[in-house]
Amino acid sequence: MINTLEKIHYISDANITAPIGFHADGQHVGLKHKSKDLGWIFSEVPAAVAGVFTTNQVQAAPVQLNKQTIKNGQLQAIIVNSGNANAVTGKIGLTHAKIMQATAAEQLNIPPHLVGVASTGIIGQILPINKVVNGIQQLHVDGDAHGFAHAIMTTDTSEKAITIQSEIDGDLITMSGVAKGSGMIHPNMATMLGFITTDANISSTMLQQALSEDIDTSFNQITIDGDTSTNDMVLVLANGLASNTQIKAASAAYNQFKTMLHTVTTALAIAIANDGEGATKLITVTVSHANNALDARLIAKKVVGSSLVKTAMFGKDPNWGRIIAAIGAADVQIDPDIIDITINHFFVMKNGAPVTFDTTAMANSLSQKNIDIEINLHQGAASGQAWGSDLTYDYVKINALYTT
Amino acid sequence: MINTLEKIHYISDANITAPIGFHADGQHVGLKHKSKDLGWIFSEVPAAVAGVFTTNQVQAAPVQLNKQTIKNGQLQAIIVNSGNANAVTGKIGLTHAKIMQATAAEQLNIPPHLVGVASTGIIGQILPINKVVNGIQQLHVDGDAHGFAHAIMTTDTSEKAITIQSEIDGDLITMSGVAKGSGMIHPNMATMLGFITTDANISSTMLQQALSEDIDTSFNQITIDGDTSTNDMVLVLANGLASNTQIKAASAAYNQFKTMLHTVTTALAIAIANDGEGATKLITVTVSHANNALDARLIAKKVVGSSLVKTAMFGKDPNWGRIIAAIGAADVQIDPDIIDITINHFFVMKNGAPVTFDTTAMANSLSQKNIDIEINLHQGAASGQAWGSDLTYDYVKINALYTT
């Protein structure tokens, strides 16, 4: 998909409530020690919904519930808590998720089947449902939209949000996204929650198709630590209040919608990688001239997921041997003797052999926050990217001390 | 295979030269700053050989060379250097490996096709071949056998060796093994070198079969960091000087030989996991009641390879939610609702639900070096194990600073 960036306008005050008819709130209700831990998003009218969920076989209660709820193709609200994942909590977990759903529905005066539920936090502890129920009663429809972005955070250090605008068929469309997640981020979405709102008018079938097609090149291409969560989900609500002609099939309008969606999902995915637990670097791996896009993505993700590459980048060490070793370990047929590798645009390997580079200039370059690794396979015409963080003392610290 | 441990005797002075007719040496020749970096093993007569090699598509020059050399089924010597992997060094790398082979052959007065070559260390730097050639001329046939075990080490903190004896058909058989490897240890053998000597009389065909069958339950079940090396290999030399009737087919004698081999390979594999870079813990994961042994091994390895499980164990934190999340992310069909998990024999999860445990007793238990995680899938009758280390500040330190 060509990213028609010239038609996309970034709005500086990124806000999940920027699209017409959306409202949100986020509050502290006592699930976490001090910070905000409960929030909701509400649309004035039922919205078309699309969702993608973790591939982990162990699925948190809210994931199980949402998969059922969104089958009708509509949602009007999403209630989210942090501080507790409501995962691996036995049968009571699903009961708790349903109580969250019903309580939010009652408070918003809408049917429960229009309410999605999400949880994130520690696995295997029973959700303190009384705090959640009481907390929901403290939420407002016209509340603190930035508070929502904060209420879904766990070890995240910053709010992750984007708002863009573009035209579809001459109508102004607004799309916003918020996300959380900085650990257990791997293969398929991992402790990651993403919520996207738009006032575009699109059928739920085409919305789901757009999201499903997009995910493999955005959220599924980030990795922090190779662990896959029980709670991941991305939900998109499209409430149609921009009044464009409904997108019902593949078309120019659909392509423009997908471009907008990809802009939002990629920005959120990179924001998550950038805020990886303990990260000091954002590592972008670009694989070009692969036989196909899947090959390119697999190799990019293998490299960005290598603990040895990640520690090398933390150490500002251009140890490209670890990069080629990771390439060779990916499940993709390659010819090591024709591969070129650059780190921050310095060639380190050409035609499979070492290249001398300016070590001082390289060292300066590796002191920057952004590391670009480019791999030219010299096989075909396809390319792909993946994003990740370095592996640092602080990653170990954060994760050695998380529950206790 | 039933491990008939009662028939295996462990020899306290583990030594690669314990089997009849083997000699070894290890010296410092200047490839590393101070420590030993070149060594060889020599058998008085040509020995049957078996080998297994890295599955990485990027294969170091000595790996490429050995695959050719051992096709004749015999080796009489192995020359090994550390400090430089001779990997991704272009065409000159293979030339250098052949020079190592020829120089050692000349010095030992045997044909080059009876000499195996191995290298380990930094990837992508040209091997200083003059130092190697001069160094080979300093090696002795009756040299320092423990020196050999040290000469193959990189970031290893201790020599890894084992010697056992047992009887096959009434003849006393001795078998020894040495190994190195503490980083880039994953799926398939990873920066790991293993050399096993025995005076057993066995055909090279049966020797290869025994090794190939064994490797999936020993060396391939350890993981330190998920990275797969370009240089891994395990070579077994069986010189027949114990004069037992040659093992030529599946038989009681072959089974006993396999039991001996498994004792050696498992001990070396666990020693490697125990010495994982920066490790403070040896983590053993045992999966029982799986539908088949492969399923059990896959899950065991997924759990022991999880960065979040590894950091939790470093933090002495019984965060079993990360264990069940890793189980669910393995590519094996499971039923989360019937799984039991224990950590150091304390139940933490039963029938897929949390279990209350004595947190003080658990905390004391997690202060020990050895962590045992047991997972009962309640599906079938098969079991499997995997071994790994925790993920610590020192792992990051070692790998952030390795080349520079």
From TrEMBL, chains A, B:
The record marks 120-121 as: Involved in the stabilization of negative charge on the oxyanion by the formation of the oxyanion hole. It holds the Pfam family ArgJ. Catalyzes two activities which are involved in the cyclic version of arginine biosynthesis: the synthesis of N-acetylglutamate from glutamate and acetyl-CoA as the acetyl donor, and of ornithine by transacetylation between N(2)-acetylornithine and glutamate. It comes from the Bacteria. InterPro entries: Arg_biosynth_ArgJ, ArgJ-like_dom_sf, ArgJ_beta_C. CDD domains: OAT. GO terms for molecular function: L-glutamate N-acetyltransferase activity; L-glutamate N-acetyltransferase activity, acting on acetyl-L-ornithine as donor. This is Arginine biosynthesis bifunctional protein ArgJ. One of its GO terms (biological process) is L-arginine biosynthetic process. The gene is argJ. Keywords: Acyltransferase, Amino-acid biosynthesis, Arginine biosynthesis, Autocatalytic cleavage, Cytoplasm, Multifunctional enzyme, Transferase. Substrate binds at residues 154, 180, 191, 277, 399, 404.
